[in-house]
Amino acid sequence: MTDLDNLFATDEVTLEQTWDMLRVRITVLNERVWENRSQWPQVEAWLANFDGRAGFEPEIEKLHALFLLSQFLFIGSAETRVLLQSVYRDLFLIPLVQEVRASLGGSRNPAIVEAAVDEALAKTRFLGVGNPSESGVHLLYYFRQENQLSKRLFLDSAAVFTSTLSKDGTIERALAHPEVERYIFVDDVCGSGDTAAEYSEGIVTELLALKPDAKLHYLAMFATSKGIEKVRTTKFGAGSAAVFELDDSYSCLSAGARILLDAPPHIDAATLEKVAMSYGGLLWPSCPGGWGNNQLLLGFQHNTPDNTLPIIWAEGSSTLPWTPAFKRYAKL
Predict the structure, then answer these.
(1) Where is the PRTase-CE domain (predicted)?
(2) 47-65 burial, b if ≥16 CB within 10 A, otherwise e?
(3) Measured between alpha carbons, how far is residue 150 from residues 125, 145, 191, 197 in Å?
């Protein structure tokens, strides 16, 4: 046990010592994990938001905010690429190989299995969730690179269908690639599951109307347990999955929140919740705990999801100024 461990094992730790410990942690995280996106002057600007409006002394609010920030899980560019490899290998390719082998009577002949897998892959298309400007589509560029896939295996939603004008003046829709049997939708995070559910009622519904036997999968890097379960009840079906499934302990303000298991002295769960929800209520009255009340502390190098606490990413307004710690780029 180190001297620091010995100190924190006693009741003699001061509020200032807890503050210093959290500051050191955040400095290290910024240098080694956060890609220098939140240096200490920026952290101080963010902490200035907490001025007593939650009903505590400002230094208490700032301390609890600092603790929340110290638990922020940032997925950088390198981590994103590794996760996209896992999405392809673990969630798509391995199950595909298992399916192919089963269709071949359990064949273990590498040449036969490989040829059948290649044939199935040729009839597969990967798509992002959302329009071309959103993160699900943005990730496909790295997904293709990391998994060394041909660009012909990728589509945007507009290229799934074709439209022709019939003689009677009506527009007829058809699949642009009728030979395709599998459509794999790739996403970064599934929080509430609402976005995927809405998407399934649009393009997926039309796709299945034209090809009822199409095989559909929704695959994400991260998903809450409740969110991915919701997606599985949609037309995406049971094949929906995530590399990391986040249970309720990742809701950072919940009674069983994992961030509280080893919280330092002077961090109180009730205070933490009131600070986060009070300011969250000012910033986003309908969703003070983030969209779906997911209460996540998660962000990516390309954006911060709205399922994360608003106090982390909100920019406020002219009437309610707020400096974010990790900015979110809204869909508008």
Answers:
(1) 43-328
(2) bebbeeebebeeebbbbbb
(3) 10, 9, 30, 29
pLDDT by residue, tens only, the chain of 332 residues:
444 455 445 458 999 999 999 999 999 999 999 999 999 999 999 999 999 999 999 999 999 999 999 999 999 999 999 999 999 999 999 999 999 999 999 999 999 999 999 999 999 999 998 766 566 678 999 999 999 999 999 998 889 999 988 778 788 899 999 999 999 999 999 999 998 998 888 889 999 999 999 999 999 999 999 999 999 999 999 989 999 999 999 999 999 999 999 999 999 999 999 999 999 999 999 999 999 999 999 999 999 999 999 999 999 888 999 999 999 987 65
Whether 282 and 260 have beta carbons less than 8 Å apart is answered as: no
Amino acid found at 280: G
pTM: 0.90
- Name the residue among 289, 280, 225 with its Cα closest to residue 252: 289
Question: Rounded to an integer, what distance in angstroms lies between the CA atom of residue 165 and that of residue 35?
Answer: 52
Pull the structure tokens for residue 274.
């009131």
Q: Please answer whether residues 122 and 116 qualify as being in contact, where contact means their C-beta atoms are separated by less than 8 angstroms.
A: no
Structural domains of the chain ordered from first start: 18-71+267-313 (no CATH), 77-246 (3.40.50)
Strand 171-175 versus strand 161-165 pairing type: antiparallel
Sign of the torsion formed by the C-alpha atoms of 183, 184, 187 and 189: positive
Q: Shortest CA distance to 283 belongs to which of 54, 56, 62? A: 54
Using CB atoms within 10 A of its CB, is residue 168 exposed (0-12), middle (13-18) or buried (19+)?
exposed
